[in-house]
Amino acid sequence: MIYFNNDYAEGCHQKVLEALAGTNMEQTPGYGEDEYCAKAAGKIRALCGREDAAVHFLVGGTQANLTVIDAALRPHQGALCAASGHINGHETGAVEATGHKVLTVPSADGKITAAQVERVVLAHRADSSFEHTVQPKLVYISNPTELGTLYTLAELEALSDTCHKLGLYLFLDGARLGYGLAAMGNDVTLPDIARLCDVFYIGGTKVGALFGEAVVMGNPVLAEDFRYLIKQHGGMLAKGRLLGVQFDALMTDGLYFEIAAYADRLADKLRETFHRLNIPFLVPGITNQLFPILPDAVLEKLSEKYVFCEQERVDETHRAVRFCTSWATRPEAVDALCADLCRLCGGES
Fold first, then answer.
1. Exposure pattern of 107-123 as b/e (b: 16+ CB <10 Å)?
2. How far is CA 96 from the centre of its chain?
3. Considering only 123-127, 147-151, 319-323, 345-349, which range has the smallest mean pLDDT?
4. pLDDT at 346 over 90
5. What is the mean pLDDT of the chain?
């Protein structure tokens, strides 16, 4: 079988593996207090243009999300996000388990707008019984979103301005951030994100690392006592240097951005084939995630050779599915899928 179901099926990039093997027998302090974590954090701060930012390495995306949100909120406060947001649909109530409600707004493209945030917050404040309902205090977004869409710089600036005007924190989940930054047509940079968000993270698990995420905190209020919460929520690794070594390798000589661009270009090739065959998409996108709408009969044939993710049923005979490329996807796998799509959907291979 050829796997297009996610972007974390393989282990890690060869340079990351070499870095881990090369430092395997070194003795270092634990819990992220080692020289490799310090070096990686320094490189991240330089890339973000924020020498004042706190950088913390956590073991995974769920741990990063729930720890950041719990650090930001008081017991009566909640996190506002799109209904399709990862913390709402794919983390088994992890945020709610910390005692904070996820407050959702509808979204057709996976994004939340500044206007929606303002509407929800002002409605809460205008309610005469506001103290009986959860107070919105943090806006959670992911970039790319769950549907592979990207925020434009204008959208991100509007969200940031609105959040700060209303006294809310803006938190960006960057589990697939590399694929977003490297997408053709993206106009948001890493320094933009560091400037506009109170906190965000750079995903490693899905972009070349064995595991791990780098949380970047530009707001010093959130950084206070954060390591206590990392420990309390199970996100602190005793062998913390394993995270530092990986991110040090990824942030050296542009490797992180290089491998993300590689995945995006393969996705672009696949996307071009879908367009050429007049196959519609659930949502338009430019990242490594594609959500085509295909006939059930075609999907049954493809499933004999390929693994992909079910997204949703569109009508009685068509379903939207997700195909995902990654830093490790082989070009010949994309070529084979394009040829099979052409054969099954009436085009020429």
1. bebbbbbbebbbebbee
2. 20
3. 345-349
4. no
5. 96
Chain-centroid distance, C-alpha 209: 14
Percent of the chain at pLDDT exceeding 70: 99
Q: Which two tokens stand for residue 50?
A: 């924020």
For the chain, what is the HEC assignment? Answer: CEECCCCCCCCCCHHHHHHHHHCCCCCCCCCCCCHHHHHHHHHHHHHHCCCCCEEEEECCHHHHHHHHHHHHCCCCEEEEEECCCHHHHCCCCHHHHCCCCEEEECCCCCCCCHHHHHHHHHHHHHCCCHHHCCEEEEEEEECCCCCCCCCCHHHHHHHHHHHHHHCCEEEEECCCHHHHHCCCCCCCCHHHHHHHCCEEEEECCCCCCCCCEEEEECCHHHHCCHHHHHHHCCCCCCCCHHHHHHHHHHCCCCHHHHHHHHHHHHHHHHHHHHHHCCCCECCCCCCCEECEEEEHHHHHHHCCCEECEEEEECCCCEEEEEEECCCCCCHHHHHHHHHHHHHHCCCCC
The pLDDT assigned to 349 comes to 42
C-alpha–C-alpha distance, residues 214 and 50, integer Å: 14
For residues 262, 172, 30, 46, the Cα torsion angle rounded to the nearest 10 degrees is 70
- Residue of 256, 253, 284 lying closest to 271 (CA atoms): 284
Model confidence over 28-82: pLDDT tens digits? Answer: 999 999 999 999 999 999 999 999 999 999 999 999 999 999 999 999 999 999 9
pLDDT for 89 equals 87
Which of 321, 324, 272 is closest to 293 using CA atoms?
321
- How far is the C-alpha of 14 from the C-alpha of 7, rounded, in Å? 16
C-alpha span between 143 and 145 (Å, rounded): 5
Q: Determine the residue type at 248.
A: D
For residue 81, what pLDDT is reported?
96
CA–CA separation, 246 and 56 (whole Å):
13
Helix axes 153-166, 114-126, angle to 10 degrees: 20
> Which residues, at least 6 apart from 282, have a Cβ–Cβ distance to it below 8 Å?
147, 291, 292, 293, 311, 312, 314, 320
